[in-house]
Amino acid sequence: MIRHCILVLSLSLLLPPLAESQLFYFGRNKVTYTDFKWQVLKTDHFDIYYYPEMKDLAERGAAFAEDAYQHLQAKFNHTLGSRVPLIFYSSHLHFQQTNTTGGFIPEGVGGFFEFMKGRVVLPSDGSSAQFRHVIRHELVHVFMHSKVARVLSDHRKPQDRLPPLWFTEGLAEYWSTTWDTQAEMVMRDAVLNDIVVGLDDMERIYGTFLMYKEGQAALMHIGSHYGDEKILLLLENFWKSTSFNEVLGMTIGKDYEEFDKEWIYALKKQYYPLLAEFDAPSKASVTVTTTGYNFKPVVVPGDTARSVVFISNRTGYSGIYRKKLDTEEKLDPPEELIEGEKTDEFEAFHPFQTRIDISKRGILAFVTKSGESDALHLYDLATKSVTGTYQSPDIVSVGSVSWAPDARRLVFTAIDKSGNNDLYLLDTESGALERLTRDYYDDRDPAWSPLGNRIAFSSDRTSYGKEGAYNLFLYDLDTRTIEYLTYGPQNDKSPAWSPDGNKLAYTSDRDGVQNIWLLDFPQAPDSSLIVPAEPSGTWRPTRRLTRFVTSAFDPAWTSSGDLVFTAFEKFSFQIRMLRNVPVIADTVTVIRPLALLRKDEPWALPRLSGKSDTQRFRYEGEYSLDIAQSVISTDPVFGTRGGAFVALSDILGDDQYYFLLYNTAQTQDEILSSFNVAITRLSLGQRTQFAYGIFRFTGRRYDLTDPDLFYYERLFGGYLTLSYPLNQFQRLETSIQIANSSKELDPLFEPRRSLLISNSIAYTHDNSLWGPTGPLDGTRFNLTLAYTTDIEYSSSNYYSIIFDYRKYFRLGQRSAYASRYWLFYNDGTYSRRFFMGGSWDLRGYPLWSIRGQKLWLTSHELRFPFVDQLAVRFPFMGLSFWSIRGALFFDAGGAWDTKYRETLGAVGFGFRMNFGGVIAFRYDIGKRIEQNFSRLQTGLFYQFFFGWDF
Amino acid sequence: MTRVNRLFGCGLLAAILFAGCGGALRLNRPLAPAETDWLMFGGSPARGNIASEELPPPLALVWEYDLSAGVASGTPIVADSVLLIGDLRGELHALSATTGRRLGWTDLGEAIHGTPALERTIAYVPLTNTAESLVAFDLSTGKALWEREYGEIEASLLLTNGRLYFGNLSGTFFCVDAITGDTRWKYSLPENTSRKGIRSTAISSDSLVIFGSDDGSVTALRTAGGRLKWRTETGASIFAPLATDSSLLIAANLRGTVTALSPDSGRTLWSFEAHEPIRGHPLLTPELVVAVTAGGTMIALDRITGQVLWSTQAGGPLSAGVVESGRYLYVGTLNRECLAVRLIDGTVVWRTALSGRVKTPAVVASGTLYLVTDEKTLLAFRSATP
Q: Which of A317, A748, A793, B104 could hold A341 in an S-S bridge, CB 3.0 to 4.6 Å?
């Protein structure tokens, strides 16, 4: 997270140079690749921020937002008190660059509401219906926050709480969309596999997609059994108790426990009968994978050993794997072909979005994020090497790919800067790129027919598409026409041709959840493709292949007529196989006609109504307060200090200002001379991010890096730091600081004055994968070179080297061997000291007790899971502790100024526990290795501290 | 320090600590309510939110009063130039209806959702979220005459013939002696585990008292004894107060159905679908029925046929019903506006921006329109034309 790093770096520059910086420098980079030219569109209730390339999409979003506003103000019986900033991005990759939040945005995040500034930030994924849904979802959050604040304010209660997450997210879904196939899949799976938890126990699935959908289902139950008005009353009664359990009781007459009994019983009554007709995937298909989440299978053509290639996150990183179809995973584990998320080249996969494909020649085509945009890679399965990578300046995100029968051309879907998802054709030999569709309809999952120039694909271009339904189409490359294959309000996706081209398998939710269906394509005598149409021309038969109670996705054919696919079960995605498809298809399937008679005009873009007062202008920065905090502290050594901290930033988070002001005066006459001021500007709106600032500090100091002395110091100066991310994993940083210091080390002597200039340059690499308490895989490395000199008094003149290398060797899913190597080196006149000791580095020794101008350390640790959940149930409440991890460790190191003193070490074991995802508690027991590694400590040391593993 | 000094010191400290923590509400003169005063929700049992005077627009703001807490569905009541209003912090304020000057206030402990009712100098106040939820407060002594436990009350009180009528959130309807606070009779809605609650203010029609409830039913009870006269379903929760005169009863529900019933039998005479929730009370005049919707539509229906006579967009959601003042209807919106609409054709003839949203109906009394916004402000408007 580069924003965090550069802020830490700039703040650390306020401290004595290069000493404290030994504590912070790792972290991945959030790279601003794209130079967005922000514009503002003002509607009746919204300020919409967009860039010119996505003007149409922004207008569409504006219409959706105003429509949602009208809908929600009636739902909430409330209007908003101020205009809502809506920040739109035309693709998820652009969205991931936003500076409105400091954190990384995972693939699954469709948007967010940031309530400090009241901002809604969201991308389009190519689907207008989904764009409308996300806008409405986030606006439900906006309305709910405003409503709750108003209710509490009306009753003069402190506005210090919100309803629980299951309610806020459940409501956002309930009032923004219908109960869709995905929700049905998740709830069926949860109920039938006994994963469902009640409201009383919701912390067990806190923050998960299941919790969102359970919240939505619970509110649906309240709406249908107690009346929809009770949902609003839950908010209007929110003031009555700090316990939402009691609020629920006051509103519907039942608390969590009573409600859960009723609701879960109702869910069981609803879903258990489904088992009479439908099966769990594991009961009706062959297991291929069992570990991790696995997606997008494709069968290797011509492989006599029958193997499948797929995307999986089985190691924590997403990658591409190959596995034999007819062997058990335990006996014959998958082979890793591409390791993703460790390099810029394969920065991230989109496992829910992008199908992969293998050509007749054994070339695997797949898509990863690679820098600013997605890249399409070709990988030779025979030589196990990448043979080509394609990126286009006009394309941001790439979706599914499919090879032509000639093994030369590829069809794929891609989102351009305008946010439209269309079909493209790539000639892999010439590199020529051709756009096949150019419209605002969402085209997905192309599948090139093995019999010629026809491409089946899924799209929302029917009249049902406005509400988010997808149907199948056939694109004829010869005539450049598009023909309907299916038509209806369902979702038909992921078409896959059988090797002989006679059948098209696809998924459809026409019966409630995604199952695999089949369309027959009789073959003409000349082996060309015949599009099936019944005599009347009004309908076409389709046959259901699977009757899974949850869902199946992404079918792919084997040469022998089997189908491999992804199945959802027990909240896991696994590759499964259906054997003998032609036989099954002819015996047990249900035939459904697909109506083709009524082909309405495709839907048109929504527009803002004429009443809406819209204005556009270029964005020029709108700043508002992020935080204002005042502090008074009293210390027996340093006395009383008082001050304030203020942070401002613009609406896009690109420019941030930090102001620090405090006073360290001990007597009245010191007040004027004891002001401490620091002003920092942080600029994140471009790839080269920078921070600069000025500071003046004065007061009594105790500096860890100097000899153990208290002294009085006056320090003022300025600094500039630049950070250039090479990619998500590597960056270069440089900084310069000038500081005028006057230290009164001894009242009897003149102050020690200096005018220090410090320059540094650093390279940082971090591709580590984290477990609950620290890294488990990858590498972290930092090399910093610096030079500090006193240009006026020549009192200081030294150079610095920081070398920090950490390597994590994965031993299993959740265990790893970690090693760390430090060399910190300051040399020259009045060079400062480094320090170590304590739970974070050399364990068993007092915190930061080992100091020297030179320092080395090596640490080795075996990390393993110890206790996954420790639950304690008191009569009045329950407590759960998660992810308790164990460690065996060995440390060795030494610190010295001019002459090496001794080598120290420690060995022992410890436990770590993640607490709330924000901190890790550590407890170590061990023995010090003392006296230059000649003897073990008598007895044991016990150390309790907090902080992540190295 | 002597014991007396210590006591004095403690007393002084307590006075400093609790200064401003409790008010006093005691009027220095007896109230003599007039026929034209606004003594409970809707004005009086017979008036149904129809003012006894015409207040022609445009209006001008003459004063405003800071309540320091919000209001729910309760309106001010006005009698003999004194205005009373309860807020969601449980404070009952008394103001000069003429100048807006505060005459006093008292803290009744919990939120006042509905409109109090006034008889002579006794204010009857409904409370929610507390056990002792009905309070009779004597404005002349500044003390509660009695407090009784009637469950959470979020409806306004109907006061007629010395009896108070109201329903609570548990689905029980009460008739209470206004003098003693004792229950004369009570009626519980039929066993209804999922949609209890009576939020709709009761109305009286001849010998009946009629109310709507969360379960979507309209119930008519005999005022003598509380026996059920009739009960009819409307299909969705009724939060809005009902409207009636001797020949017609109007109920509006959260699905947007306006139902005209016979007050005597509960027989449905006609119904109209507005397709948007109706939270504000309907208005029943000799010629028409006016309903307002959460979608911001004001609809006038023929009272005989239920046909739409006119329809007007208010420019914002309407949570509160309209008040009729002669040839004009006044209503506040959630879009922070107050509108005057011509009764005859629905034309908006005047509108003014407000500082906050309006969720309660306006009150017109003594030549003044009183309106509460959720910025915790009570506003008083008078006609700007001489």
A: A317
Classified as helix, coil or strand, A540 is: strand
| CB pair distance less than 8 Å for A155 and B295 | no
Helices (H), A588-720: none
Whether the Cβ atoms of residue B365 and residue B78 lie closer than 8 Å to each other = yes
Interface contact B89-A156, CB threshold 8 A = yes
CA distance from start to end of chain B: 67
Question: What are the two backbone dihedrals, phi and then psi, of residue A214, each rounded to the nearest 5 degrees?
Answer: -65, -40
pLDDT at residue B33, rounded to an integer: 86
What stretch of H or E contains A643?
strand A639-650
| Span B46-79, pLDDT tens digits | 889 999 999 999 999 999 999 989 999 899 999 9
- Using CB atoms, which residue from B111, B193, B214 is nearest to A227? B214
SS3 category, B300: strand
Residue of chain B whose alpha carbon sits nearest to that of A259: B194
Which CATH number among 2.130.10.10, 3.40.190.10, 3.40.1550.10, 3.40.50.300 corresponds to the domain B36-383? 2.130.10.10
> In the sheet that A433-435 helps form, which strands lie side by side, from edge to edge?
A395-403, A409-416, A421-427, A433-435
Helix (H) or strand (E) holding A312: strand A307-312
Size of the A and B interface in Cβ pairs below 8 Å: 70
CA A261 from centre of chain: 35
Tell me: the pLDDT tens digits for B128-164? 988 889 999 999 999 999 999 999 999 999 999 999 9
Cβ contact B374–A156 (<8 Å): no
Cα angle at A812 between A808 and A817, to 5 degrees? 30
- Per-residue pLDDT tens digits for A479-515: 999 988 888 899 999 999 999 898 999 999 998 999 9
| pLDDT reading at A535 higher than 80 | no
Q: How far is CA A712 from the centre of its chain?
A: 46
For residues A320 and A328, is the Cβ–Cβ distance under 8 A?
Answer: no
pLDDT value at position A532? Answer: 57
Cα A771 to its chain centre, rounded Å, is: 15
| Residue among B71, B73, B88 with most chain A CBs within 10 A, to mutate | B88
Which of helix, strand or coil describes residue B7?
helix
Q: What are phi and psi of B18, to 5 degrees?
A: -100, 10
**What is the rounded distance in angstroms from the CA atom of residue A431 to the CA atom of residue A641?**
66
Domains in chain A: ranges and CATH: 1-27+623-780 (no CATH), 39-161 (3.30.2010), 281-595 (2.120.10.30)
